Amino acid sequence: MDAIDCIYSRRSCRKFLQKPMDFQTVLDLIEAGTKAPSLGNIQDYRFVIVSDQDKINHIAEHCTEQYWIAEAPLLIVVASDTERSEEYYGLRGQRLYSIQNASAATQNILLAAHAKGLGACWIGSFDEEYVQDALNMPEHIRPQAIIPVGYPAKSPQKRHEHAIRMFVGFNAYGASIENMNTLLNEYNKEIERAYKSTEKKGKKGLDKLKDKVKKFYEKAKEDFNKRK
């Protein structure tokens, strides 16, 4: 499975078989997490593997009634060392970069799990203080995500996905790729410059301008068709 196939086919899994995972497989997932990018390469992400069933049950009870989490044979808790991120980047590092870095690590683990035929899910809604206390985390180690992982009991259903135009702007937020005027903005500037250079040349200059405009729009349409 290549990277693109892995990204496109990954789905959240909430039903697991009671089948143990090889410990090396679990370490492979953690190592994938450590390969995630981090601001300034500070690598402030931290991981706790939870395999004790009682702890899994209790954590599940503190995940806003997502009791299905208790069915997972293993949890990976992704945390961040906010003291380290603040040391390098101040308050912004503590409040933002630490979350971004842990999120990148979480996504790596999800993709690695899928590539190995495992199921996993990103849990962000949980009692942070409880998890921190239950896993003996120091105050500066902040849990950011919980990943239940195991062999899937069934194939997750295909999710509803919006068209790409719902997510992307072209050269500005909210400027749809389908908006031809936005796409042509760069060409319109060229047309304006061409007009200024020919408006004093009478009909002959305007005829040349028409040819230039035609070529500009043909090129713009070609670009538009490539970007749809």
Structural notes for this entry:
The chain has helices at residues 3-9, 23-34, 53-61, 82-115, 128-134, 180-183, 185-198, 202-227; strands at 45-50, 74-81, 119-120, 141-150. A four-stranded antiparallel beta sheet has the order 1-2-4-3, with helices on both faces. It has two domains: 3-150, NADH Oxidase (3-Layer(aba) Sandwich); 164-227. The protein has 228 residues and is of the alpha+beta class. The two termini are 27 Å apart.
Short description:
The chain is α+β, with helices and mostly antiparallel strands and 228 residues long.
What does the secondary structure layout of this molecule look like, with pairings?
Layout: H1 3-9, H2 23-34, E1 45-50, H3 53-61, E2 74-81, H4 82-115, E3 119-120, H5 128-134, E4 141-150, H6 180-183, H7 185-198, H8 202-227
Antiparallel strand pairs: 1-2, 2-4, 3-4
